Amino acid sequence: MQLQPRLRPRHERGLDRGTHAAPAPAGGLCAPPRQFLADIAKIIDTPWEISAGGDLDFPGVVGERTFKVRMGNAYMARLQYAATKDARVTDGFMRVAGLMDPPQALMRPAMLLRVLRHAVRRPAAGESWLAGKDTTGAAERPTV
Predict the structure, then answer these.
(1) Which of 81, 105, 131, 137 is close enough to 101 for a disulfide, judged by CB 3.0 to 4.6 Å?
(2) Mean pLDDT value of segment 60-87
(3) In whole angstroms, what is the distance from residue 131 CA to residue 141 CA?
C-alpha cells in the first residue's frame, strides 16, 4: 500500500487561496520560469509565512525561530484568546485567516488595543482537545 503525503489543513487552505483566488502572475503563464516563480512567490509568501510561522510555536517543531516569528506567535496567542472575548477581534482574525484582509490588519492600533485589553500577558497553554485521542489516523486506514 502506498501512502499519500498530506499537508495540514491550514497549509492546504493557504496554498489553495494563494494559487486559485490570487491575481494572475504579472508576466502571465508564458513568462520565463524565473520570472513566473518570482511573480508567484509574491502571491503565496504571506499565506505560507502565516502557516509555517504558527507551526514554530510548538516546541517539537524543528526550525529557526527568528525574532519576527517569536513576536508573531506571541501576538497571535494573545489575539486568539482575545477573539474569544471580543467579537470585533474575532471578525478581524477570521478575515485574515480567510485571506480576505492582509495580516497587517491585525496590527492596526484599534485592533492592538482590543487584543491587549483582553490579553496583556500570553495566555497559558491549555490541554489539547486531542488529548487521549488517536491522532495517527490508524482508525481511518483500511487493513490489508
Answers:
(1) 105
(2) 89
(3) 21
User: Does residue 31 sit in helix, strand or coil?
Assistant: coil
Residue 144 lies in a domain: no
107 vs 119: CA distance, rounded Å: 15
Which of 41, 50, 42 minimizes the C-alpha distance to 95?
50
Q: Give DSSP secondary structure letters for 43-91.
A: HHHHHHHHHHHHHTTSTT--S---HHHHHHHHHHHHHHHHHTT-HHHHH
Residue 141 belongs to a domain: no
Q: Which residues contact 61 (CB under 8 A, 6 or more apart)?
A: 55
Counted domains in the chain: 2
- Residue 7 grid cell: 499537508
Same domain, 40 and 60: no
* Interval 55-70: pLDDT, tens: 888 888 888 888 988 8
How is residue 37 written as a grid cell? 516563480
Share of the chain above pLDDT 90, in %: 21
